[in-house]
Amino acid sequence: MKNIKLNNGIEIPQLGLGVFQTPKGEDTVNAVKWALEAGYRHIDTAKVYGNEADVGQAILESKVPREEIFLTTKLWNDDIRAERTKEAFEESLKALKTDYVDLYLIHWPVDKFEKAWLVMEELYQEGKIKAIGLSNFHKGHLQKIHEIAHVKPVVDQIESHPYMNNQELIDLNKSMGVEVEVWSPLGGTGGNVLQDETLNKLAGKYKKSPAQIVLRWDIQRGVIVIPKSTHKDRIVSNLDVFDFELADGDMAAINQLNKNLRVGADPDNFDF
Ligand code: A2P
Description:
By secondary structure, this protein is of the alpha/beta class. Helices cover 41% and strands 15% of the residues.
């Protein structure tokens, strides 16, 4: 496992388990426990996923010390609009059964996100959050945050996979010292990225699965990646991407699969 150092000095494991669309209850508890057993030390959830309580329960039951786990959650849009950042954060802590989170993100750049950011800065200064960042922020939103921020965001979490690699936004963030986390790295639940012919050929060449090829591509292009699965075998194999290396030509072949095809909402045009 590799760590990436964020701009405030703290380290994040480059690969974590995402639990977007992992049903609450037993599915989430099992997924998180299997992941921790397999060696994952980074879990990414959000208030709106409805499974923070299960993530917290799984962490406790796993017996892995809390401080060994990098835990992310996100501030939901309604809470930003209602200016209840502090309350929402406390609710998340309670659900997660912990007294701090490693990373707290603004989930979407909805109206009043600047106000929320300033409150998150306070929580960060109080030590209740180890790092603060953004999610689904595009160029214009990033400029607004950079104008008002006293604390630089450590990450921007955005959609990125071989059919929508979002490389320009990744490069923009990196040029500002902001690391990028990628969501729906395997093309999400409805996508067909993993059926791609090039990825399947590369899977044959490296004797890995198409998912492992994609995740390795992410590791080598220097982004933080949070694949989701509810299946134990997939959770285990998705972490097994640190024992091989894609050749430059194969990295380029995956880069060329881009067709700007989103599987999720567009940060410039969404209504939730
Ligand atoms: P499942 O949870 O049934 O395993 P993303 O991380 O891009 O959101 O993609 C997750 C989707 O890819 C889910 O539908 C998940 O389904 C599936 N998935 C996760 N890991 C693998 C894998 N190793 N092989 C095939 N499909 C996978």
